[in-house]
């Protein structure tokens, strides 16, 4: 694959697919404030996605077939969409611990969506 094609596909399939580039004009002496704020936002976003990935792994280990019997999470593109499907399945089909895990996952997803707006 040519590097031009990779660059074109990069924003859609990379780990940063859900991030957007923003260009702002700020006073020269305040540039570092903006850069550090953006770094903090990216780190917070990554931590939420990592937490969701941990919950997905834990759900697969604990509940396996009971939750994933008719769900093909591999067909979903990103961690948030996989997490939403698995969280709803945990709430509908699981025990009390699964219900709590599903609610935590939905709470993290709501935080991600709230901060994305």
Structure description:
- With 117 residues, this protein is mainly alpha-helical.
- It contains four helices and no strands.
- Helix 2 packs antiparallel against helix 4 and helix 3 runs antiparallel to helix 4.
- The longest helix is centred in the middle third of the chain and has 38 residues.
**Oligomeric state of shown chains:** single chain
Mean pLDDT: 85
Q: What share of residues is helical?
A: over 70%
Radius of gyration: 18 Å
Query: Which parts are unreliable, with pLDDT below 50 for 5 consecutive residues or more?
Result: none
SS summary, helix count: 4
* First-to-last CA distance: 35 Å
The assigned structural class equals mainly alpha
Global outline:
elongated
Give the amount of beta strand, in percent.
under 5%
Q: Main beta sheet, described?
A: none
Q: What is the helix/strand order? A: HHHH
Strands, total number: 0
Layout of helices and strands:
Blueprint: H1 3-13, H2 31-68, H3 79-93, H4 96-116
Helix pairs in contact: 2-3, 2-4, 3-4
Question: Gist?
Answer:
With 117 residues, the protein is mainly α. It contains 4 helices and no strands.
